[in-house]
Structure formats: structure tokens, C-alpha cells
Amino acid sequence: xxxxxxxxxxxxxxxxxxxxxxxxxxxxxxxxxxxxxxxxxxxxxxxxxxxxxxxxxxxxxxxxxxxxxxxxxxxxxxxxxxxxxxxxxxxxxxxxxxxxxxxxxxxxxxxxxxxxxxxxxxxxxxxxxxxxxxxxxxxxxxxxxxxxxxxxxxxxxxxxxxxxxxxxxxxxxxxxxxxxxxxxxxxxxxxxxxxxxxxxxxxxxxxxxxxxxxxxxxxxxxxxxxxxxxxxxxxxxxxxxxxxxxxxxxxxxx
Length: 254
Hints:
The protein has helices at 2-9, 13-24, 29-44, 69-76, 84-92, 98-102, 104-107, 111-118, 152-174, 184-194, 197-207, 212-219, 223-237, 242-253; strands at residues 49-55, 58-65, 96-97, 123-131, 134-143. By secondary structure, it is of the alpha+beta class. It has a 5-stranded antiparallel sheet, sandwiched between helices. Strand 1 and strand 2 (58-65) form a beta hairpin. The longest helix has 23 residues, at 152-174.
């Protein structure tokens, strides 16, 4: 199985470039999903794909292929609120895979693995879809290969696919073919009630006027991690700095 992953990692760069171009040239959400599915199939050997656009914080499914309805229902029913891969994507703004985020030693004992395993999958991976400086969607895939976790090269290629997808979505938005689901002012009330636990803890302390160092000391995390959470919160609420963020969060709680 690892040999198969190595073979996939060795795909000619020219074929990857062709796939990226087909993604970037997509002019509808469905066309984008089809192009991503084709590229991910070559990249991972699994055709599974889930394309989501963000409705506030909640990922709204707009295209899927080779994913059981039960898994999609579980995710929609609330698993997304506790999805470490989604949280990491939103915090770091890059492609990640579940095993790396959770840790190889804990992966097979995690709720994420248990849910995937129930529907025949072994590993998952996802990346952000951007419009300007804001994450507006997420692209997910999963593989059934139990002995072939995603490699650094696979994550890099997923990042490239997401960048191409971001270009396509930006073009669609500029052409008026799609639009964000909610404005920042409408998002605030929903987001304040549905932030991941760590982000919510940071948000509360930002509202108190605490510095990054004070927040890091209280939460037992690094200054850089706090900075990433704050940047993530600013993106989610559509604000530019922590002062605007605090004002937005406080108004949302009233």
C-alpha cells in the first residue's frame, strides 16, 4: 500500500499542471467539484471528495462524490463543530490531514478515525478555499487505503489544488455566479455560539482585553498559537484587527 502511495506521489508534474488548470478554469460549483474529484483521484488513488462553502462557520455541502450519505449526515449533524481538521484548516489556512493533526499515536483512537472507519475510510485530508484574505470554503478527501497515510507531498499537492479552486471560486464570485452566504454582521450571532472550544476560549480573553502573552499563559499554549487563533477569528468575522474583533464579539453576545 505504501508502494501505491509512492507511485501516486511520483505522478508527472505535467499531469498535475493540467489538473490544476482544469480546476482554475471551472465556471460553476459543479464543474469545480468534478475537476477536483478528477485531480484528487490521480493524487490519492481515491475518488472521494467533499466540497463545502462556509455558511458563517458551518460548512455547507455543495458537491460530493463517492461519500456515503450517512457520513455526510453525521458531519452535518454536528461533527463539524468538533472536527480537528476543519479547525486546523481555519486556524492555519493550509492543507492538513487528520493523522498529522491528531498525531499518529492517537489517530486510530480518535473520534475522527472512528467516524471515517465506520464508513470504510482510513485517512482524511482537507484544505482551504480562499477569496481574497477570507476562507470561504473547504475541500475534503478521504482514502480507504489503511496502510497508506497521506504524505507531505500529498499535502503539498492538496494545497496546490485548493489554490486553483480558490481562483475558480473568486472568478465565480466576481462574475456574480455565487455569493457568500452571510455578511459579517449576520455571521456574528451564529459564530459566537458555534466556535470550536479553543477558539472560543481565545475569543473570550480577547474580549477581556488580554494580550497574546496573557492568553498563552492562562491557556498553556504558545504566543504563536494564540496569534493564529486571533487571525482565524478575524477571518471568520470579517474584521481586520483584534480591536474590531472584540467589538464584533461583544456586540454578538448582546
